[in-house]
Design a protein that fits this description.
Shape: globular
Number of strands: 7
Low-confidence stretches: 1-27
Strand content: under 5%
Radius of gyration: 30 Å
Number of domains: 4
Distance between the termini: 79 Å
Number of helices: 29
Mean pLDDT: 88
Helix content: 55-70%
Largest sheet: 5 strands, parallel
Length: 653
């Protein structure tokens, strides 16, 4: 009797592994992670795409002394922009560059990490004609600031011949370290009038408050202390109230509701917690603050988990003799709405509770991180609750100078056996770290370290591909390209394929990135180690028409083709056919295209022979344009002979 041994699946609600060996079921959550990252990126003020710059330009109010800043930039092509925190220095820097003519070059931010052992961030790429460059040092530490100034002095000489401009945002707190030879390039701005900023934002949303509307006492107090990003957030809150309430209410009501969301409850929370002697009640406060708007079961699970994490003694009182959740919620001024979700009655109270615990209990921040991880393992948490909770945890970790807590959770979630469900959480947490003004550079460097490490978990690599594509690429495309390239090299199976698609898409998005990627594929010092994958990437990226008139691009293409043509024929013959067909379809580029191919095999007659045979196969496969194909092959042979120094009959034209 023969018995067949195998796997039978009657019904499945997830990924199934029916064979031997490891399986990485991390892709089913990719769509959810991508959606979450795009939602987050939509509200980020740091992207420098043209669409976002126009949006900012419409709402921008010139700060005091801005005319002087413009004059320095126009005269010296470099300006070192300073100003007090909250004055909108980065926005002002972007507007300075946005106002410059943009017929040539591109507007982009210089890398702020040393990738692939680059000697300097200024040497990370070639400066092109007409480039408009931003370097944000506003959060730089002392040693880095001093070193960047030294490198800047030499870099300035490269800008003038290329009609390029650079704006550097300085760290205001380190003004005493500015070099004497750079002081003439520095210019300060003041804080724009907050009321004017609010009015400009509102007008862009078709909201026209009267002068008396803006004389509101609570509004004046808010505008006197709020940084500009909070002023912009208030305008957005008013717009959302207008969209929700419609014609039922007017500006004073929209303003009151938006200001209520900005209430500072720190003093009241501190008093309430000081008066509360029950450890369980305090645990309930923090659990409710972290999972604000969640069902009672979620709050209960988090409360019990927090008591356990902090080694709180068990309550031996029989359950029915203890207070129920409704009474406990009432005692902390929490309410249960019609949908069964629990929240504090006072606006801003939940945020103040979170701030209080992370600020005034610094000795338990590590336990709070582990507690949050335990809470997120609850199967009852829905996607919306998870998204909100991750944002709240990230806010506290970053505010309290603990970016390593975010990094730790990302690594843990990517390595867990249930990695699939945590992909959106890990990706969101990492993206929040990237978007932070102070800690963004830390996370960009960490992602580089992960992407180049041989032992990085495949689940983590998948998260990195998502974050680099959706979160880093809009703000730091050069650095995203480098990291995606490393992930494309090292990723296995679908992770590697996904990384390849992502890096190719980014490289094709603009000419500057296209040339940067060609340069990496053609001259990277690690190319021999990754020759096969780099050759595949090169053949997929190289375009016979794009930028073919540029001598620099032709040299890069020839170098890439030289490596590719040494691979087995079946890897490149289809791409050669595409290039030769381009000669027929775009006769004006034929000379440059054939020059690239001929130069690629000039040093090896065997490679030249293989290329010529492939060209003959392409010629015989013609279903039309027979004469043009024959002519193209003849010209290719002539170009090969010329490159190899072989005299041939002059080509008749």
């Amino acid at each position: 009797m023969t018995e067949n041994v195998g796997t039978y699946v009657h019904e499945s609600h997830g990924s199934v592994h029916g064979g031997e060996g490891p399986q990485y079921n991390i892709y089913v959550a990719a769509a959810a992670a991508t959606s979450r990252l795009r939602d987050q990126a939509g509200g980020r003020p740091r992207t420098i795409s043209r669409t976002d710059r126009i949006h900012l330009y419409q709402r921008f109010v010139d700060p005091p002394h801005f005319t002087r800043v413009r004059e320095v930039l126009h005269e010296a092509r470099v300006v070192l922009l300073d100003g007090p925190p909250g004055s909108g220095r980065r926005a002002a820097a972007l507007m300075l560059l946005h106002e410059l003519p943009g017929s040539q070059g591109s507007l982009h931010e210089l890398p702020d990490t040393l990738d692939d052992s680059a000697a300097s961030v200024f040497d990370a790429r070639e400066v092109s004609t007409g480039d408009r460059l931003l370097l944000d040092l506003s959060k730089a530490e002392e040693a880095r600031y001093v070193e960047m100034q030294r490198q800047l002095s030499a870099f300035r000489d490269r800008l003038s011949p290329l009609d390029a401009h650079l704006v550097v945002v300085l760290p205001h707190q380190l003004g005493y370290l500015l070099r004497d030879d750079l002081r003439h390039l520095s210019a300060d701005i003041g804080r724009p009038n907050s009321r004017h900023v609010l009015a400009r934002h509102l007008r862009c949303e078709d909201i026209e408050p009267t002068g008396s509307d803006l004389d509101n006492q609570d509004l004046r107090a808010f505008l006197a202390r709020a940084p500009l990003r909070k002023v912009a957030a208030l305008a957005d809150g008013i717009r959302r109230r207008r969209d929700t309430d419609g014609a039922d209410q007017r500006f004073p009501q929209w303003l009151a509701a938006a200001l209520a969301d900005e209430h500072d409850q720190a003093g009241r929370v501190a008093a309430d917690i000081a008066a509360e002697e029950s450890g369980r009640r305090r645990a309930l406060l923090l659990s409710l603050a972290m999972f604000h708007g969640s069902p009672p079961s979620t709050i209960l699970h988090a409360t019990n988990a927090l008591l356990k994490a902090l080694s709180h003694p068990d309550d031996e009182t029989p359950r029915l003799d203890r207070t129920d959740l409704y009474a406990e919620f009432t005692a902390v001024r929490a309410e249960v709405d019609a949908d069964g979700r629990v929240s504090f009655g006072l606006p801003g109270y939940d945020s103040a509770v979170r701030d209080h615990f992370w600020t005034y209990m610094p000795d338990v921040r590590g336990q709070l991180r582990d507690w949050f991880q335990d809470c997120m393992s609850s199967p009852g948490l829905g996607p919306a609750e998870r998204k909100t909770a991750v944002a709240r945890f990230a806010e506290q970790g970053l505010r309290c100078q603990r970016p390593e807590d975010l990094r730790t959770l990302v690594e843990r979630w990517a390595h867990t056996d249930a990695a699939t469900r945590y992909v959106p959480d890990a990706a969101q947490l990492l993206a929040l770290g990237l978007s932070d003004d102070q800690h963004g550079r830390y996370f960009r460097q960490q992602i580089y370290d992960w992407s180049t490490a041989a032992d990085t978990n495949e689940g983590l690599r998948h998260v990195l591909v998502l974050v680099c594509s959706e979160s880093m690429a809009p703000t730091h495309p050069d650095q995203a390209l480098v990291r995606l390239h490393h992930l494309a090299r090292r990723g296995r199976a679908r992770t590697g394929a996904t990384a390849q698609e992502a890096v190719l898409s980014l490289a094709r998005s603009e000419n500057r990135l296209y040339e940067l990627m060609l340069n990496r594929l053609s001259s990277d010092k690690d190319q021999n180690m990754w020759a096969a994958r780099d050759s595949t990437l090169f053949l997929a990226l190289a375009d016979p028409i794009r930028r073919i008139r540029s001598p620099h691009v032709r040299a890069l293409l020839a170098q890439g083709w030289s490596t590719a043509l040494r691979r087995p024929d079946e890897r490149w013959t289809g791409h050669v056919s595409h290039w030769l067909s381009a000669c027929v379809e775009h006769a004006e580029h034929r000379g440059h295209v054939l020059e690239v191919l001929a130069t690629a095999c000039a040093a090896d007659s065997r490679t030249a022979g293989r290329l010529y045979r492939a060209a003959r196969v392409w010629q015989r496969a013609a279903d039309g344009a027979v004469t043009e194909r024959a002519d193209t092959v003849d010209r290719l042979l002539h170009a090969i002979d010329t490159q190899q120094g072989i005299e041939s009959y002059p080509y008749a034209v």
